[in-house]
Amino acid sequence: MADLNSKQSPYKERQIKIIYAIALEAMHRPLLVSGLWFHDDVRNNFYYASYLFAATVEASLDLPFDQEEAKQKAQDVLLETLLLQNRVPGTVLHGHWPLSLNPVPREAVPHELPVEIMGSLMVFFYKKYGALLSGQLRVAFNTALGHIYRSDFFRKPVVTFGHHEAKYTAAKLIFGKMFEDDELVEDGRQSLKDTLLYIQSTGMPEYGSLPWFWHWIQAFTCALELDDGTDEDLQTALREMLNHLWSVRADFYLQGAWVGAHSRGWPHDVPGDVNALHDYVQFGNFPLPEEMPRTEYAGFLFYEAPEQVRAAALDRQTPVEVTKVTQKVVPSDPNPQPLLHSYAYITEHFAAGGMWERVEEFDNEQQRWAFSLPLSGRGGANQLYFFHPGQGYHEGDPRHQSRYSEVLYHQSVIMALYPIPDGEQNSIIGVLPQGKWLERPKALFGQVGEVYFAIYLSHPYQLLERPGYIEVSAGGMPGGVVIEALSVKKALELGIGKLELYAAAMDLKAPHFSTGGLLQAEYTSLNGEELKLEIIEHKPPQASINGYLISLEHYSV
Predict the structure, then answer these.
(1) 20 to 30 A from 94, CA-CA: which of 47, 316, 322, 506?
(2) How far is residue 400 from each of residues 262, 351, 543, measured CA to CA in Å?
């Protein structure tokens, strides 16, 4: 392992831990007949080989395997990966790589996605380690980078302000500088300016988009790292972008968890925040995850967030409410899109939040709301939420929600109603983190870590053990769910510090559900506030606190 007594920053120490962990896995992972480790995603071969090579030249690492053998293995995989590029000018997707490599990698068809981020990262790797590579591999890198530049994949306008365009923008700067293409650099500079102005003034259309937010971070960090330092204006603009991105991240940060709503979420993001390496390096207040499903370049690229941003993210002793707005971009519709309102309540031990509005997102991946728990290193789900399954849902993958839901968010309480029409599946699904749960006919009371949860359902339910979480299913909808969280510390102050005492007290506070023509939930929180959510047919839903409708007018970017 690394000698961490050397004079290194804590960020660098954490990156070296990542390099070491992935290098170990890469060295011990057997190669396939193709000479690669992975056929599902070509990029993983590049990432693992990068880490394995880096480990062999990292002076602070004491490797438990033969250094020269590892270095050769890494270079062999890098070369084989580079040779999968389409190097025939004038053909479709010239300069690109395949994404999936099955069944025969060298016969796989090029795909537009891998080069978006991998192309820029290849420039970074070659600049950092090129002098240490074999002559054959240096030639292969130079050839590949030339084909990437001539592919022109990045010569696209900024329209949707999403992660694809963010990567195009960074690539314009990186390859423009590398090939002394002043026109391309200026295009990238303007794209950077336009993108930052938009997301600062309007919000990110890709709110909480995982894992794609990390492509924003890596792309612009890579561009900054590769700048030669002579273009001060560009360096300033890149730092402004990265400061803003890390501020966005910090707003919804709780010890490795990304709180609240997500426009996108993959299985390594929902129902558990597993893809947390960039957070680990930046914030360092949770253990290095054992599972690293998306390594990318967290161990290589780093930009230190502003001190006040880091301090706010790391200090959650005083609860905060985060109220943000954003808008989607629909290129086919020139009219401004409706405002979207995002809410989060973040405490030291848990957070709750979501989006007030339902949005049809790509692949129907919107995660509307959730309670989130800090990452502790114990694995499994750290999110608690309910939803009505929609398009794309299949059992065992608790994503892909339908539009049939209305919500109320207020501090430690979330209420959700499901006005499911006839003809639709009339069951809702819930996700519970693993912990100690007490079952009642229409309620669940549980303890997960330092938090108690009271969950009330309008209908009876069933539980099913899933890998890493407990699944709840409740039929007979329309109906709803009300959830309130309380820290164990606060429960002790209230005299209900044991789970059984907490359950007995909360059992007396069950909300009132109406599921006839009027769909309604009424609940009195532990703070004594009267919360009501109701849906009357042909009328907008109404959410109120102590008789006053909740206003979202104070929400801002």
Answers:
(1) 47
(2) 12, 22, 25
Instruction: Give the residue carrying structure tokens 């532990």.
Output: 526
If one counts every other C-beta atom within 10 angstroms of the C-beta of residue 90, the result is 5
Strands (E), 253-391: 253-254, 257-258, 320-327, 339-346, 351-355, 369-372, 383-387
Q: Where are the alpha helices (DSSP H) in 315-390?
A: none
Q: Do 375 and 289 form a contact (C-beta atoms < 8 A)?
A: yes
d(CA 425, CA 478): 10
- Tell me which DSSP letter residue 293 carries: S
| Rounded Cα gap, residues 391 and 87, in angstroms | 39
Q: How confident is the model over 272-325, as pLDDT tens digits? A: 999 999 999 999 999 999 999 999 999 999 999 999 999 999 999 999 999 999
Residues 55, 48: contact at Cβ < 8 Å? no
Picking from 467, 463, 203, the residue whose alpha carbon sits closest to that of residue 342 is: 203
Q: 411: which DSSP letter?
A: T
Tokens describing residue 72: 């050769």
Q: 413 Cβ partners below 8 Å, 6+ apart?
A: 352, 482, 483, 484, 523, 525, 531
Average pLDDT (10-22) is: 98
Q: Residue 103 class from Cβ within 10 Å (0-12 exposed, 13-18 middle, 19+ buried)?
A: exposed
Interval 37-70: pLDDT, tens = 999 999 999 999 999 999 999 999 999 999 999 9
Which residues have CB under 8 Å from 444's CB, separation 6+?
Answer: 432, 437, 438, 453, 454, 455, 457, 461, 472
